[in-house]
Amino acid sequence: MKAAVIVFPGSNCDRDLKVALEAQGMDVTMVWHKDTTLPDGLDFVGIPGGFSFGDYLRCGAIAAQSPICRSVVDFANKGGYVFGVCNGFQILTETGLLPGALLRNAGLKYICKTVGLKVETADSAFTSEWAKGDVINVPIAHHDGNYNADADTLARLKAEDRIAFTYTDNPNGAADDIAGILSENRRVLGMMPHPERASDEGHGSVEGAPMFKGLAGLFETA
Amino acid sequence: MQEPAITEDLIASHGFTPDEYAEVKNILGREPNYTEMGIFSAMWNEHCSYKSSKKWLRTLPTEGPQVICGPGENAGIVDIGDGQAVVFKMESHNHPSYIEPYQGAATGVGGILRDVFTMGARPIASMNALSFGEPSHHKTTQLVNGVVEGVGGYGNCFGVPCVGGEVRFHPAYNGNCLVNAFAAGLADADKIFYSAASGVGMPVVYLGAKTGRDGVGGATMASAEFDDTIEEKRPTVQVGDPFTEKRLMEATLELMATGAVISIQDMGAAGLTCSAVEMGDKGGLGVKLNLEDVPQREENMTAYEMMLSESQERMLMVLKPELEEEARAVFVKWDLDFAIVGETIEEDRFLIMHNGEMKADLPLSKLSSTAPEYDRPWVETPAAEAMDDVPEIDAIDALRALISSPNYAGKQWVYEQYDTSVMGDSVQTPGLGAGVIRVHGTDKLLAFTSDVTPRYVKANPVEGGKQAVAEAFRNLCSVGAKPLATTDNMNFGNPEKPEIMGQFVGAIKGIGAAVSALDMPIVSGNVSLYNETDGQAILPTPTIGAVGLIDHADDLIAGEVRDGHVAIVIGASQHEVGSHLGQSALLAEVFNREDGDAPAVDLDAELKAGLFIRENREMIRACSDLSDGGLALAAFEMAETAGVGVSLDPTTTAELYGEDQGRYLVACNFDQAEALFIAAGQAGVPVASVGSFGGDSVTMGGNSADLAELSAIYRTGFADAVA
């Protein structure tokens, strides 16, 4: 399986994501934000966490305008698999690939800790290794993870089974406890928590690894 | 632009004593001009010159087979095997943080990270040791919030995990908070970069962010006491940009890989001045700078302002000229400035040109090598009187008092604002004892800790200095790490007062004895003096940052207390588990007393006990050193972390809350307790059975409370007091 991880100048979880993908046997290329095209024959694009352009304005807003993001949007629109974690989720909402926005945490402070996540749907390449209702423990580390969208969008996400994860104990004020959502075609996932930080024995938890395993498995059988 | 005339006021405001100014004139054989005076003042202030402390710092043990580079460079370097090295240092940003807490703390983190990656190391761990005034003081809440947000704001964006630190409160810090930032990085031992320039006519290159007027005179500000004009000093605080720092780090490491770097130095205190002089001085060369080529973000900056600016996220490098294009391309890629601003010259001169005009012409080697050095008068701290009149107190009531104090409550409120898991190698994050980071792509672990007990140092600087090192040693041993080396961050009051200087001298003696006996040499450090406001000094606070190595991940003592584990104290015998209450946390928090002597440190016993823990780690399920709050607090913390109750057999206040040194509390399986006792007997290490873990209550001294109730107090105590 061929994967790319996009690197913005302020990305700081790019290596973490690469390591987690490689652990599942993926062939990972790091793609610089100034590049205009993605490598050929790509199966999957990961947008890592971090502070893409410092995030002094709206998180992810500048990154969404970078040359490579146009290619990522094209890739997704053609049915490609895209995963955005933390800052990557913020960028995906800024590009319009996912609805809604990530506001400042309700407590106004940055929060880094391990939280419980409930798997709300197993119907996606990202969540197929779990059963609906499973609870996993995964770290969060963000200042702006308070997911919000208008009532219609929230209702639609729910009706279309596009809420991938919810918090068991909402840390940031997110609407409907939403921690991660899927696109309409279920091939784009954005989430605030970091499964890549819970995917190896050294992390003290491997509860995030099934996500990458599921993805890799999809392409093995394809 | 007309430069100010040199007047007595101007001389004094630059921090010169009359003697020092006379020496400047003597060196030059003339009066300095305004820019030259600024340069001298930047090099000769306490912060940059260590003029009061040098004599004593020289006495510290700095060598060992593990040491690749000791003090004197940007950071210390220690061998961790397999051709790898850990590069680390701790540095204070006290004065700026009190004036402007967010930016002061943020740029403190930025400065220490730069020190590490300037040497070719990618930062992999950070810690911060913070000291604030009493919780009820009107500035404390604002300072705590600002400093913690500043530390987090910078480190989180940069992307280095925070693995530990300290937070304390004491009225002595009401007028001066302390922000001590530690960073460690990983480098290949054969790819380390130093600051000494070499080669004549080599281009001097400016890298990173543009120069503004922020921080002009910051180092001089940090070399004086505070008084009620403090608000006027706000413009001397720099403003941090962690996004630029992150790019500067990536660009610098890429640049180093091109082979274009002859020498490199970050611009920290006294910016362009200090970095250029350092590179020239260490290389035995002169430096000529053309200031019109310096990237500037403000208009009409003078030579004086550019030479003294402490704008952040900047570096100075001596470049191999044939690789200029490759080097420039790296900085273009990262959208950072890359400007040739001067060259190395053969003569011993520091020549500053600005728009064709010579603004300074100074003998470069004289700027640092002839900086003043003082043998300040000092008096030994009077011996503290022993005390033995502590009344017996209900052990659970005492525990409630300790864990509801922000000094001993859980620090989740603080460290949950720091990214502790970025980089994907965090094995043990802040909370209890040392933080542990995996060396990326290997099976090795590095352990980090930061320790000092200022109450002890005040009562007895020598024993207090020893204790800071011993506690760091114990914290490393508690996770199974072999202590490697130490960085010291010496925070004291006004060294011109003999009693303050006596604290400094005593602490240095204690630290020196301890790092020698425990084989953890000092490889880097920083001195912050003049932490006084209106004549009131802080508690003497020599913060010790230490690093240890665990050769294989399997050797980690991970801290898994389980129901049924036996509680055993290593380092104390059954007939006297604890005795020393002088200067204890119990005295301070429960009885509001700070009297008695600091506990004595037996370095031989420390060494033996530490070795014992490491050698018997297979039998040890969890381990914590006993420090503030003694056995009672350590047992509670271990129980609380695991969510398992604990019951202790000792009953007296001294046994439960005494702070005797050299002790560890370990948890082990019931069927291994006997073997551990036998091993201790054979090793000649005192050992005592003190109780067991299990159930859902905390029982000590004949009283008991629900773990859940105490846990709630422990987890909210900090935020309730100061957030």
UniProtKB/TrEMBL annotation, chain A:
It is found in: Cytoplasm. Keywords: ATP-binding, Cytoplasm, Glutamine amidotransferase, Hydrolase, Ligase, Nucleotide-binding, Purine biosynthesis. InterPro entries: Class_I_gatase-like, PRibForGlyAmidine_synth_PurQ. It catalyses: L-glutamine + H2O = L-glutamate + NH4(+); N(2)-formyl-N(1)-(5-phospho-beta-D-ribosyl)glycinamide + L-glutamine + ATP + H2O = 2-formamido-N(1)-(5-O-phospho-beta-D-ribosyl)acetamidine + L-glutamate + ADP + phosphate + H(+). GO terms for cellular component: cytoplasm. The active site is at 86 (nucleophile), 194, 196. NCBIfam families: FGAM_synth_I, PRK03619.1. This is Phosphoribosylformylglycinamidine synthase subunit PurQ. It comes from Halocynthiibacter styelae.
Automatic annotation (TrEMBL), chain B:
InterPro entries: PRibForGlyAmidine_synth_PurL (IPR010074), PurL_linker (IPR041609), PurM-like_C_dom (IPR010918), PurM-like_C_sf (IPR036676), PurM-like_N (IPR016188), PurM-like_N_sf (IPR036921). The active site is at 47, 93 (proton acceptor). ATP binds at residues 50, 89, 488, 525. GO terms for biological process: 'de novo' IMP biosynthetic process. Mg(2+) 2 binds at residues 115, 266. Mg(2+) 1 binds at residues 91, 526. Its EC number is 6.3.5.3. Keywords: ATP-binding, Cytoplasm, Ligase, Magnesium, Metal-binding, Nucleotide-binding, Purine biosynthesis. SUPFAM superfamilies: PurM C-terminal domain-like, PurM N-terminal domain-like. GO terms for molecular function: ATP binding; magnesium ion binding; phosphoribosylformylglycinamidine synthase activity. It catalyses: N(2)-formyl-N(1)-(5-phospho-beta-D-ribosyl)glycinamide + L-glutamine + ATP + H2O = 2-formamido-N(1)-(5-O-phospho-beta-D-ribosyl)acetamidine + L-glutamate + ADP + phosphate + H(+). Residues 200-350, 563-695 form the PurM-like C-terminal domain. Residues 14-51 form the Phosphoribosylformylglycinamidine synthase linker domain. Residues 72-186, 434-550 form the PurM-like N-terminal domain. GO terms for cellular component: cytoplasm. Its main location: cytoplasm. The keyword Nucleotide-binding applies. It is found in: Cytoplasm. Belongs to the FGAMS family. HAMAP family: PurL_2. Monomer. Part of the FGAM synthase complex composed of 1 PurL, 1 PurQ and 2 PurS subunits. Part of the phosphoribosylformylglycinamidine synthase complex involved in the purines biosynthetic pathway. Catalyzes the ATP-dependent conversion of formylglycinamide ribonucleotide (FGAR) and glutamine to yield formylglycinamidine ribonucleotide (FGAM) and glutamate. The FGAM synthase complex is composed of three subunits. PurQ produces an ammonia molecule by converting glutamine to glutamate. PurL transfers the ammonia molecule to FGAR to form FGAM in an ATP-dependent manner. This is Phosphoribosylformylglycinamidine synthase subunit PurL. The gene is purL.
